[in-house]
Amino acid sequence: MEVTSVVQLDQTKAKDEYPNLSLRPLQVSDVDDFMVWASEEKVTRFCTWEPYTNKEDGLNYIKNIVVPHPWLRAICIDDRPVGAISVSANSGNDKCRGELGYVLAFKYWGKGIVTRAVKMVVETIFVEWPHLERLEALVDVENVGSQRVLEKAGFQREGVLRKYLIVKGRSRDRVMLSFLSTDYQS
Ligand SMILES: CC(C)(COP(=O)(O)OP(=O)(O)OC[C@H]1O[C@@H](n2cnc3c(N)ncnc32)[C@H](O)[C@@H]1OP(=O)(O)O)[C@@H](O)C(=O)NCCC(=O)NCCS
Fold this sequence. Notes:
Blueprint: H1 13-17, E1 21-25, H2 31-38, H3 41-44, H4 55-66, E2 72-77, E3 80-87, E4 97-104, H5 113-128, E5 134-140, H6 144-152, E6 156-167, E7 170-180, H7 181-185
Parallel strand pairs: 4-5
Antiparallel strand pairs: 1-2, 2-3, 3-4, 5-7, 6-7
Helix pairs in contact: 2-4
The structure holds coenzyme A.
Coenzyme A binds at residues 43, 46, 102-104, 109-115, 139, 143-146, 148-149.
């Protein structure tokens, strides 16, 4: 399904600045744009992975992880990727929930872009995956911008999971936020 075909964009300052914001699959041919955000220390600060230092690693990541990923989209301005957003798929008893993740090139921070992208995901994912009842996000306690993005997009803050994950050698507390399919319907 074409992701942008079923979304209604909200009115924000970014809509005026970047009217051509869209989500689409990230492809091998996008590797140079991918390397822009993937190589930035600021972008990877709260992520489990280190900044990419060479294009070959970027190509391998796109081929082996991005292309087969069940739901990963490039966040594009004028069809050019400036970041990425994904939902993980679970199976069995965990099938009702998926985890949201996103990154954006530093140059574009603070313009409402990821908030718009998250709203676009919320408006499509429960339609594309009718089995999904819960979209969740786990955010570092110090990643205040990311928590704000999710709250602006309608996610509810559920609590703090203490010493939940090791990131770059240190165990970190993570805030759990979620959006339910019934939140969207209501
Ligand atoms: C976090 C990130 C996705 C935000 O994307 P963005 O497009 O800049 O976010 P938006 O512009 O839509 O919204 C950011 C909000 O957080 C606020 N914010 C940002 N940094 C903040 C801080 N340190 N303290 C308080 N608020 C902050 C902004 O003011 C804005 O809120 P406002 O609209 O009420 O003013 C982006 O910075 C990023 O890619 N970071 C690196 C990767 C990452 O951390 N991913 C998330 C992993 S959970």
